[in-house]
Design brief:
This protein is 36% helix and 13% strand. The protein is of the alpha+beta class and 485 residues long. The chain has four domains: 65 residues, no CATH class; 41 residues, no CATH class; 79 residues, Phosphorylase Kinase, domain 1; 256 residues, Transferase(Phosphotransferase), domain 1, CATH 1.10.510. A hairpin with a 4-residue loop joins strand 2 and strand 3.
């Protein structure tokens, strides 16, 4: 084989810079695939171990590395650097051909004049410029990734501004969700209402090789990411008031236009700008990150549902799922109100109110925090496995109940309209204390916030407050203050 080599490769082989496949092959690579030293044909296959003998190539540096100390061959597959994401089959196909050409070109120009380096750099630039890209924009960074696809930050060359591009995987269910999201965002953009600006704005969308790509305005961190970055230190009541008013306006706008978001959670509420400063908090005796702006927008309309559309039986992320969804009683726009009640509690506590991954335990936590589930809801549910003798089927003697007891405390007692007024100031104080075990302080603003949360976290959708009514709650009109803008 060496006799037929070009002069350059023949010289490189003689100097030991490259090793080309010959009659001696790596014993680990027996089969009809490429071995470690090069490709080989079926005729090169050693039919048995007796024919193979000790036929490992002695000049191959890769085989010498495998044997290691004492002549033993190292086991296990070589792995790349930790933390690097695995490429998808499409990405491997996209880059495999240019990289192979680049490797061959590098071998051919090895140990030659330095001018060849310039040619290599030009060749690399040519490969990068010709590589397919999901959009005409320049990809700056990846903002997030999940099972649905990923969101990347791109530079719009025409407008010289940065945008976010949501790329949905080329799978039918994701394509359907993407089309639904595009339809919702187009409907939002077409409406003449100032409140629509509290929802993320779609700039464009296109189909790239089966992947639906939605171009959105670029926003900052999500409220959850900021909590995590700030070591899950909770927001202050004034901060919650400012953010809640904007969120309520956005979702109320959706409800007025016959839409239910169905997936409201801190991850889907983003700051317009998440720049912050470091400030020392004397109460916590530690340095905190203080946001410069509390303006937020609601994002992710992939599961948003119009009133006339089919309502799936299961919606919302677990921790923010309303009881009527868990009990399969049917749902409407009020499930968004319940989710937002859980979101505000998470802003106030720094962690999720219902920390569970089991529906039965979730319902038990609700009873521990909010009191017994009404009997008529348990009778109507299609999930009778959660009901026993007219009550929630939950074993009080299990370790799961200990978990519920440790993580859940009563949030409220019956309101004055539902129970006799306490006879003495001491009884009134005890009743207030029982209904406010989650409160950090005793300010009037906190009392108003928890009063609003009590109306939002109602089991019965008929008694649950609407967002239109919530915007007129005293929490958003503090004494001596102004309604948030």
């Amino acid at each position: 084989m060496a006799d037929n080599l070009p002069p350059d490769l023949h010289r490189l082989e003689q100097r030991g810079h490259i090793v080309l496949p010959g009659p001696s092959v790596c014993s680990r690579a027996m089969g009809k695939k490429d071995n470690a030293c090069g490709s080989w044909r079926d005729a090169d296959d050693l039919k048995s171990s007796s024919q193979a003998g000790d036929s490992r190539c002695q000049s191959c540096c890769r085989c010498r590395r495998r044997r290691g100390r004492g002549g033993r061959e190292r086991r296990g597959r070589r792995r790349g650097p930790p933390g690097l994401p695995r490429r998808t089959p499409d990405e491997r196909k996209m880059y495999s051909t240019p990289l192979v050409v680049l490797c061959v070109f590098s071998v051919l120009t090895l140990q030659v004049k330095k001018k060849i380096v310039i040619i290599q750099l030009l060749f690399i630039i040519f490969i990068i410029s010709k590589s397919p890209c999901p959009s005409p924009d320049e990809v700056v960074s990846t903002l997030g990734a999940g099972a649905f696809g990923k969101v990347v930050e791109c530079l719009d060359r025409d407008k010289d501004e940065r945008v976010a591009v949501k790329i949905l995987r080329n799978i039918e269910c994701f394509r359907d969700a993407a089309r639904s999201e595009v339809a919702v965002l187009e409907e939002i953009n077409s409406l003449d209402d100032d409140n629509r600006f509290a929802c993320v704005r779609m700039l464009d969308w296109f189909d790239h090789e089966g992947h639906i790509c939605i171009v959105l305005q670029l926003l900052g961190l999500s409220t959850f990411e900021f909590l995590r970055l700030n070591e899950f230190l909770p927001f202050g009541v004034e901060q919650i008031r400012h953010m809640a008013f904007q969120i309520f306006r956005a979702v109320c706008f959706l409800h007025r236009n016959k839409l239910t978001h169905t997936d409201l959670k801190p991850e889907n509420i983003l700051f317009i700008c998440s720049d912050y400063d470091h400030e020392y908090n004397p109460e916590t005796e530690c340095e905190e990150k203080k946001l410069r702006s509390l303006d937020v927008k609601v994002v992710d309309f992939g599961t948003a549902t119009f009133d006339h559309e089919h309502h799936k039986s299961l919606v919302s992320t677990r921790h923010y799922r309303a009881p009527e969804v868990i009990l399969d009683l049917g749902w409407n726009q009020s499930c968004d109100v319940w989710s937002l009640g859980c979101v505000l509690m998470e802003f106030y506590l720094g962690h999720a109110l219902f920390q569970t991954h089991d529906s039965g335990e979730h319902l038990a936590m609700m009873e521990r925090i909010l009191g017994p589930i009404p009997l008529h809801l348990l009778k109507q549910t299609r999930k009778q496995r959660y009901v026993h003798n007219g009550r929630l089927a939950w074993d009080l003697q299990t370790s799961s109940d200990d978990h519920v007891g440790r993580h859940c405390r009563p949030l409220k007692v019956k309101r004055a309209a539902d129970r006799p007024r306490p006879a003495s100031q001491r009884q009134r104080a005890e009743g207030d204390f029982l209904s406010q075990k989650y409160m950090r302080g005793r300010s009037e603003e906190e009392r108003q916030m928890f009063d609003l949360l009590g109306y939002m976290l109602e089991y019965d959708v008929c008694r649950r407050i609407t967002l239109e009514e919530a915007l007129w709650h005293p929490f958003f009109s503090p004494p001596g203050g102004k309604k948030p803008l």
